[in-house]
């Protein structure tokens, strides 16, 4: 298609979406906000998977579909592949991206109470940052879930930030 | 001549069905499209019968009825495209070409952010695009 | 397929004739028939019959050709003779076997002559027909011999090869088998030769093409193929059948032998037969793909040969028959298919698809063509009737001798004459024939086969289509029950998969079925479902002008509206609104009010959906709680509801909402409703818009409050009862969920739409009873500690109630959880609930005590007596601690305020209290030796420094045991006695004396210590001596503390450790005055006594002390005689006042290499600065105590 999208626009859009849902629409109900953000991601993933699977034969099993997500889908969306894929062969897959694009420009900004100590690696700041960050991960989780469910795999997706730009997504396929 | 095209969702529900005949057999075409889903199921559930075209999206001729030929296409996302034609002599390449263009039109239609996944496709643009694809069916393989 | 004659359906079997010796015919026939391949036999008893048989076929031939008045040659008057095949199978033998008895062969000349004549006649008969001859000599007895020359003569007469002259011996078993198999071979060979010759003869004609009509070509090819079949040469048979078939197809345009219609009929009939043979051959050869491909070509090449318009139905009938026959062929032969049959489908050169291998597909098409036939037949009938034609002479038309030809049979004198028909005559004959059949039944049978077959293939959609078509046939015939049954199944599939247009059609039939059978409820249900179908846009309308739409008409919004109006006209009883149609049967009256139920899976959910959401998950009893009731309808027009009844599981919460616009109709019935009636200004349900109503409900009863039903009353006798749904768990509406429309929430608040539930939990009413637990400080281990529990009503009367008492380890160890511990093992219960004691007057507590249901070690259940408001009741929990530890006491009171336990809510009050359990008294002990007397105890000298070393006491020396009891509690205690008691009843190995048995009542304030001194004299040397257990009896001092404790004395025990008793060889006694005075000398003696029978060498040394001046030997070695005593005597002058250490003496026994010193306490003395003046009273005692205390 050759259409291009500004990366910073996407970053800003994502930031704005999270802040709108978390601080304006559902300021008091973070779980409702998370649900809505995830739902947006779901639709995006659903539609993207429709496009990206267009010219390929059908997947014969779950692993093939997950591999598609790791390679082609991820490349299309993030211009890189997933770095590591693990599975327990019982329906759980862990997708590790060592430099997740949407987290790459985020820094751990300690909350104001702790202010004055930038780069403070205290556990408290880390914890709060993780909490804030998790809001941003509902969207990519929704994308993965939407793509997989469009491929006929109903699953639950959760994300986990180990150390900042790295991120792992856990896919649990519902029996 | 293509008399009917249809998009069928993964729950076998019709998402888009359009007939292109002047004759009053739309209901019959609906029945034909619906029945062809049985063949799709059969092909997908017994993949070994389809031999070399394992997992290919194009399913080929699904079944001939008295006056029609029914072709099928199954996307990775379990969406089925059904084509009903009255032509007796249809080239596989034409049908494949048709389905590829139809698929592209479908993807564009469902990528509309205002389209809710799983709902019927009501887009006017899609309908226009489909009818132009239908019109150019089999005219030349260069299209 | 059953229509075809047997000779067509099964492969042909060689036929031979047996003549003569009829007694053996049966055996031979049976044998030949069971041969592989089988041979059929014609058994002719004697030789005269053979001419009859053969001439019979001649005459038939002649006779059948005689009535033909066709000007052309007889050969071209038809294509195939109907009976030709049959003739060859049943009447024209390939071989005639002449059986001659050996008697006759070797008999007298007359007999021989007879044999020769018979043979000659036979030869004449069969020669013209090329029938082969075999001669069989039958031995008339087991021993009969046939002379060689007679045999040769016979062979010559018969002009047969010697191998075709067989001797048959029926009397010898082994020879019988042999000759039978010989006969079989011979006959088979001859038959093959015959059929080959015949085939070759005709084949030459085909090859030379020495005939002028294609009819002959077809006929000859057919014959060659049949002869090939006789020989089981399937390939050749197939080839010639195909040749015949193709020639025949070409004839369609060329021949003009018969009138057009009949010509086509004949060609199709022959084609059918040829095709049938081809399919059979292919399928028998398991060439399924070829058979299917062939069949496709077959029907494609004939499909367009419709023929003249007035006889079109004949074409469709024929087509239908082709499909039916092929379906049956496929069905019967499909059992023989290999299971891994795996054609490439849908692509390439042979684009065959799955269904084309299934009989179901062909049955379905057979039914389809039969429907066509019926359509055109009806047309033809109506034309012929309007033409006023009379079926004249149709009854005299019969099939002619040619396949596919018909002729009029005319009676001409004695004989019947076949007369050809004109096309008009033929058509009217065919129409009158056609009218005799009930095509509908046939169509249903075909569809049913297809339906069942598809179902077994799990092709549910194909099956549904067949079912739908069947149902339409039933419907057309007025068989509504069968139709409805089928349609319901079909509709459920379409509903499930969301095929609205198809569903509409099916529902239209269902609606009409119920209308015609007068079932109001179903009629309304189907109508409502149709009206609520998501058919909104008119875009689809134009494509449904179709003539084959169902009774519902085209699917469109306007049609939905019509149906809507019809239904609501019906239910309102308003005739003017009803569509002017003859539906007298459909009435809803007061006698038979109509109530529809809509549950969670009902298709009518889109007609009316009710959700109920409680605003709060937990509501208080007696406090109004808000619920939002939301109704949604997809009916095309606005529905006005007269009244809504909302029903809960707690029926007293039910209420009714009345549409105030429709009060007059609602009022009529509102008497029987629940007590609460609300009124709403309008209850209009607009299409696809939620009607949201918020009301308050109040429940008095704790537990679950759930909305069950919402019943909407519309019209005087019509109610729709909707099962209430929770917005949070509401399923999407079927069908509508695929529509591209804006989703709306049942409640305005999106959070409530996500989480709203139709049920809520009603809390218990707040208790109005106090439960007071009281405890005065910590409990003391061993006592029965009383915890008073008071139940004081302050608003609620307690009708009946019970207290649950639980003791739980504070540390959560669960040490006395009843689950973990054995109830019987006391060890596990460090704290024990002993019982419950009422504080009330004697008689009442007596009554009440019976009500104690259960007391376990850590759990108790006590019933509470009836209490009025503001009354109170109390009891004491008696708890005993065995170990000091804190315990949590949980007491919960559950009570009913009312006598009816079902209606009155049970109220619970919970209280808990942590109680410390403490040791009241700490008992300790010290052993002391007598003052200033130190025995040498060898064990203590040895360098073992173990702290836990038991104390050693000298044998027969009196030692002191001091037992002290300290009050560790915070309350004063009273001691009763302290004593040392034996553990067992053994003889005491020591004497124990003590200073009298206390104490009256010794008060022991908190922190105080009480001591008692015992003198112990061990009387037996023992390494371990048990001294027994200290028993201390005490209680709380009640004078100072008004505590509700038990009055009895509490026994606390303390076990004394074991001691070691040993003999001391040397005892050192220090003797000095009790005190000294500064500057005044005194005498200090160290007495060393040898208790042994040995001479003891003892070294001693005396350390200098700065406080004293000393005279005497400082150190020396002395010898002490056995059982004697050595005294070291010193004079000492104290130089310093105060408590001073005397110069310490160190004694070393050379024998035991043991050194010991008297203890520091023993060698101390108080030096007064001057002579003290003591009162002489009882100072001595006190002083002694104070010294001991140190």
UniProtKB/TrEMBL annotation, chain A:
UniProt xrefs under CDD domains: TRAPPC6A_Trs33
Gene Ontology BP term (one): endoplasmic reticulum to Golgi vesicle-mediated transport
GO cellular component term of the entry, any: cis-Golgi network
Gene3D superfamilies attached to this UniProt entry: Trafficking protein particle complex subunit 3
Family stated for the protein in its record: Belongs to the TRAPP small subunits family. BET3 subfamily.
Protein name: Trafficking protein particle complex subunit 6B
Lineage of the organism: Eukaryota, Viridiplantae, Streptophyta, Embryophyta, Tracheophyta
InterPro entries per UniProt: NO_sig/Golgi_transp_ligand-bd (IPR024096), TRAPP_component (IPR007194), TRAPPC6/Trs33 (IPR037992)
From TrEMBL, chain B:
GO biological process: endoplasmic reticulum to Golgi vesicle-mediated transport
Gene3D superfamilies (UniProt xref): 3.30.450.70
Pfam annotation, one family: Sedlin_N
InterPro entries from the UniProt entry: Longin-like_dom_sf, Sedlin, TRAPPC2L
GO CC annotation: cytoplasm
Family as reported in the entry's similarity comment: Belongs to the TRAPP small subunits family. Sedlin subfamily.
Name of protein: Trafficking protein particle complex subunit 2-like protein
Automatic annotation (TrEMBL), chain C:
GO biological process, one term: vesicle-mediated transport
Protein origin, superkingdom: Eukaryota
UniProt-listed InterPro entries: TPC11 (IPR021773), TRAPPC11_C (IPR025876)
KW Nucleus (keyword) present: no
Keyword field: ER-Golgi transport, Golgi apparatus, Transport
Compositional bias annotation for Low complexity: 64-77
Domain Trafficking protein particle complex subunit 11 C-terminal: 1093-1147
Domain Trafficking protein particle complex subunit per the UniProt entry, residue ranges: 263-532
Pfam families xrefs: Foie-gras_1, Gryzun-like
Region feature (Disordered): 58-77
Compartment list: Golgi apparatus, cis-Golgi network
Record-level GO cellular component terms: Golgi apparatus
Functional summary from the UniProt entry: Involved in endoplasmic reticulum to Golgi apparatus trafficking at a very early stage.
UniProt similarity note: Belongs to the TRAPPC11 family.
Listed name of the protein: Trafficking protein particle complex subunit 11
Species annotation: Erythroxylum novogranatense
